Design the sequence.
């Protein structure tokens, strides 16, 4: 009976908080607390897609979350005032999205693939490492603060996936990249600062000083967290309200105090959720017999944390709008989700002039200083336009575009609009082909070639190397087969593109065996013929005797390679090879 009373008291306390949050006054949610604000606030302007949990990871001793690393890395780029066409950060999670539907929208379309550098953070087994991509020299470097903790094959798989993304987005061949791995980078001395080291490596590389990475102090790197967190808070409307709540304290002390509160709130939230799950999943009798120790420990944790300050400082905050029937404010909050505020304040609560939010793609905006900006139409990203008023091009390092800087007249090309995919036309000797999204690609300058042109030469790769381009029939039915000019058989396969619901034609090779209709796997043969014992020939002329089934890390079937090119009996040849070489898996 005593335990049942405890459960009732616990539920009453939870209901009191809920009723407090749902109290309404004049159609606007009013929640005042003499010790501060007890509910969660929105921090998505400073950490897109994140919340208090991600910001709490900046507390000392905690592992940075993926959202926190993304926000901090983007802030490092913004604070460095870099040209985003030459320095780019690929968010954590972009690789997973690409692996599902080959979506490359996270890569900027206007990236300078001749001179730019790209940064990406890889996660594996609770560890973060930094990948640095040098487009100018076609190199991929890895910076690991715990070298050897991630298997090399996992790093190579990540780099190969990056190369595939660049091939799909920028048409850069995957075999042009050189993979490097430095060994003389400073190592972390704790178990949690791997994300901090990724950000520190990135800061040094942005300065263009690869050699200075070795001078990083492992004791100093984790201490950079408060400065990063303070910068993020200053860029957020709720963050500024938190910092302004204690104006007498130094900004560093205010930031450390907020991180401690976020950490305690996360601990309290986790303990309360665990206790709720324990109560929901068990009956009262079972709790008394089997789960009393765990329940007592959780209740003790909740009591201990509650003795410290867990409420946010009193102030005016945006809060989550749930299913409470609260009327929405008429003014635009500038946040990425529906929101409410305790008290209406001026929406332009910023440190200076800002660009409009949620603008359409291509919209231009002039700032008070005269600079012009063009919207990308997503994630509130803007590109600076040339300072010359009538020039529509993007500015380079300075205030002018490359054409105006060199005294050239900008060439403006207007393509035909509302044309079907595949439509081709010629303008001043250059041929263009329409995409499904109404954009155009330049075609090869060779008259009868229908391949896309390379960016520099104006011709396609096939015409540059002298190879014949492979051309498949169009409008083929699913499962239709055809033989190309080289005698290779192909089978058509239909796939649906998730983003457009369009049917995409894919052609795959058929096994080289004339009587076989299976698809090719390796060596121009299907899996069935690869697994049959027999003799095959490698490209270098060596013979291969298939006497067993074995797969390497790349899942390529292999057998026994030997120098017996003329044999009468397969088993006898294999036996001779074993006796001579002493192994069967070479």
Sequence:
């Amino acid at each position: 009976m005593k335990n049942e009373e405890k459960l009732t008291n616990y539920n009453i306390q939870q209901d009191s908080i809920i009723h407090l949050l749902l109290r309404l006054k004049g159609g606007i949610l009013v929640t005042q607390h003499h010790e501060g604000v007890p509910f969660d606030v929105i921090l998505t302007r400073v950490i897109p897609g994140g919340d208090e949990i991600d910001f709490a990871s900046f507390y000392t001793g905690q592992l940075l979350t993926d959202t926190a690393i993304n926000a901090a890395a983007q802030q490092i780029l913004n604070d460095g005032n870099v040209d985003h066409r030459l320095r780019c950060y690929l968010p954590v999670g972009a690789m997973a999205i690409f692996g599902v539907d080959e979506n490359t929208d996270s890569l900027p379309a206007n990236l300078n693939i001749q001179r730019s550098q790209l940064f990406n953070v890889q996660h594996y087994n609770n560890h973060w490492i930094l990948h640095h991509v040098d487009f100018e020299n076609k190199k991929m470097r890895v910076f690991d603060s715990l070298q050897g903790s991630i298997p090399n094959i996992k790093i190579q798989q990540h780099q190969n996936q990056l190369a595939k993304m660049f091939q799909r987005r920028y048409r850069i061949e995957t075999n042009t990249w050189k993979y490097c791995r430095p060994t003389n980078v400073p190592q972390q001395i704790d178990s949690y600062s791997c994300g901090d080291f990724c950000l520190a490596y990135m800061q040094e590389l942005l300065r263009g000083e690869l050699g200075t990475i070795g001078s990083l102090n492992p004791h100093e790197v984790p201490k950079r967290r408060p400065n990063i967190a303070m910068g993020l808070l200053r860029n957020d409307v709720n963050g500024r309200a938190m910092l302004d709540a204690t104006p007498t304290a130094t900004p560093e002390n205010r930031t450390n105090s907020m991180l401690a509160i976020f950490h305690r709130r996360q601990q309290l939230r986790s303990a309360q959720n665990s206790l709720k799950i324990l109560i929901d999943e068990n009956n009262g009798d079972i709790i008394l017999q089997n789960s009393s120790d765990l329940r007592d420990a959780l209740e003790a944790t909740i009591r201990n944390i509650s003795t410290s300050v867990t409420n946010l400082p009193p102030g005016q905050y945006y809060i989550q709008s749930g299913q409470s029937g609260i009327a929405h404010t008429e003014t635009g909050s500038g946040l990425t989700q529906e929101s409410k505020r305790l008290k209406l304040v001026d929406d332009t609560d910023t440190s200076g002039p800002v660009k409009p939010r949620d603008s359409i793609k291509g919209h231009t905006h002039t700032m008070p200083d005269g600079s012009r900006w063009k919207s990308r139409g997503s994630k509130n990203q803007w590109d600076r336009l040339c300072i010359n008023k009538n020039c529509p091009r993007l500015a380079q390092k300075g205030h002018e575009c490359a054409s105006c800087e060199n005294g050239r007249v900008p060439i403006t090309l207007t393509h035909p609009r509302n044309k079907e995919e595949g439509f081709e036309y010629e303008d001043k000797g250059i041929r263009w082909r329409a995409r499904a999204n109404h954009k155009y690609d330049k075609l090869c300058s060779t008259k009868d070639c229908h391949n896309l042109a390379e960016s520099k030469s104006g011709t396609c790769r096939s015409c540059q190397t002298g190879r014949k381009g492979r051309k498949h029939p169009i409008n083929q039915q699913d499962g239709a087969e055809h033989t190309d000019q080289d005698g290779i058989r192909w089978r058509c396969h239909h796939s649906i593109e998730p983003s457009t619901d369009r049917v995409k034609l894919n052609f795959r090779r058929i096994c080289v065996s004339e009587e076989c209709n299976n698809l090719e796997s390796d060596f121009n043969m299907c899996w069935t013929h690869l697994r049959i014992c027999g003799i095959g020939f490698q490209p270098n002329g060596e013979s291969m005797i298939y006497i067993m089934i074995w797969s390497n890390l790349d899942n390529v079937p292999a057998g026994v390679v030997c120098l017996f090119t003329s044999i009468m009996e397969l088993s006898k040849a294999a036996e001779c090879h074993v006796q001579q070489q002493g192994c069967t898996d070479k």
The longest strand covers residues 543-551.
